[in-house]
Structure formats: structure tokens, C-alpha cells
Amino acid sequence: MENYSKQLSLFDMEEMQPDIPKLLEDGQRIYIVYKADIIPSVVRFSRIEKSFLEMDYYRRYIVDPCPFLADVTNDSIGDSVFTTLEAVEAKVKQILKGTHDDVILASDIKVLSVEAYAYTRETDSHTIILYIADIGNDMYLVKGYMTYERILIGKEKAYGDFKEEQKKVTAYGATLRPLEGYKPEIKNMYRCSDHTYWDYTVSECAYAIWESKNRI
Predict the structure, then answer these.
(1) Could you tell me the residue range of the domain that residue 42 belongs to?
(2) What band does 143 get if pLDDT is binned at 50, 70 and 90?
(3) Neighbouring-strand partners of residue 46
(4) Residue 104 banded pLDDT, cuts 50, 70, 90
(5) Do 172 and 183 meet the contact criterion of CB atoms below 8 Å apart?
(6) Mean pLDDT, residues 184-212
(7) Cystine design at 82: which of 87, 105, 175, 214 (Cβ 3.0–4.6 Å)?
């Protein structure tokens, strides 16, 4: 008969975990910096995990919402995670120094005109809005069918992209309704990688900005 006396139970393994301090409380409001965006978030709970590469333990905080690639641990507090708005705004100012070509701040984007359309999906009655906005300097802000907002430089390029987005809707027999007086939500826009024809897009679109020369 085999001897299992030396095998560790799950309880034993939990007992072996180091006592790592809990620096953020459940339900606490925090601010996460991703690129130059400030994402207000809430700590749901935390747990001790083990790094597979370095084989050491650390405390991970599960937060909501959690931006792409955000890793909330004790080490990230004061670096990309903050507990006060004043501290996180100071961090963003530091990030933005000398990066004027890499990001167009929402505060610097002025909408001159907007052409917008809407349609309602039959499957769930959800309304989707497509638009193209002239923001000056031969730059256009475009939001298409199930795609992220992006800035395209050049009128022909931008309107060509927008017409393709419209075709994605009308190809299924849907009807686009013109929207008068629509005001798009303006966000920080980041320079894109060479593998996409977009020039700038939002931080959520990791594919377009992941391999760019963006210093942020």
C-alpha cells in the first residue's frame, strides 16, 4: 500500500504562502494609469498568487473595470495605480512630457463638423452609431461598425474608410438613419503602429498601438 503521508494537501499549501500585506481594501476606489488615460476603478477582492517565471509570491488585486494589460499588485501602487486623483493627475503630467507626437489629448481635439448615422440591430434592439467628424488640419475622427474610434489623416482616406464602414451595415439590409446634432465622445488618441492604416486611436485598441513607436 502506497504511503501518502508526505503529500501536501491544498490546505497545507495555503499555509505555506507568505504573509503579504494587503495595501488596498475591498471596495476601495483607485485610479489606474494606462498610457495617458486615467481609469477610475474599484477593488473587488485580492488574492496571493505565485509567479511562474520567478517562482515567488505576490498579492494581486481584482479590480473593475480593469484596462488592458493592467496588473494591480502592491508593486504597482504609486507607479501605475493611485489612491487619490491628485496623485494620478501628477503621474499623467509626468508621462506626457516630451510626447506631443505620440498622443493627441482629448482637450486638444475640436470638432468642426459631424456626419453621423445610427441603426438598430434586430437581434437585441441595440443602437449602433457611426460617424465621421472633421477635427481640422486635414484630420478626421471616425467611428465605424463595431470598431474603435480612430483619427485618419487625409479627407479621401477618411471618407473612404467611413463608406466601407457604412457598407458593413447596409450589406445586411439594415437601414442607416441620419443623426442631426450628434456630439461624439472625445478621448485621448494614440499614434498607431505601421501595420495599420489608422493614424491614431484610443488606448483600448491594443492591436493598433501595441507595436508602435509610441513612447507612452
Answers:
(1) 10-96
(2) very high
(3) 61
(4) very high
(5) no
(6) 88
(7) 87
> How far is 207 from 81, CA to CA, in rounded Å?
23
CA nearest to 105, candidates 35, 210, 153, 183:
35
What whole-number distance in Å separates Cα of residue 67 and Cα of residue 204? 8
Using a 10 angstrom Cβ sphere, with 0-12 exposed, 13-18 middle and 19 or more buried, the burial of residue 183 is exposed
Sign, CA dihedral 139-214-105-206, equals positive
Q: Mean pLDDT throughout 56-84?
A: 90
131 shares a domain with 191? yes
Please give the full DSSP string across 23-77, using - where no structure is assigned. Answer: -S-TT-EEEEEETTEEEEEEEEEEEEEE-TTT--EEEEEEEES--TT---BGGGB
Total number of domains in the chain: 2
- For residues 83 and 136, give the distance between their C-alpha atoms in angstroms, rounded to a whole number: 37
DSSP letters spanning 93-150: HHHHTT-TTTEE-GGG----EEEEEEEE-TTT--EEEEEEEE-STTEEEEE-TT---E
Nine cell digits for residue 212: 508602435
Q: Is 158 exposed, middle or buried (0-12, 13-18, 19+ CB in 10 A)?
A: buried
Angle 176-199-177 (CA atoms, 0-180°, nearest 5)? 5
Cis-peptide, bond into residue 65, ω within 30° of zero: yes
**88 plus 110 within the same structural domain:** no
Residue 54 and residue 139 in one domain: no
Q: Is residue 28 part of a domain?
A: yes
Return the bridge partners of 8, or none. Answer: none
Quote the pLDDT of residue 146.
Answer: 85
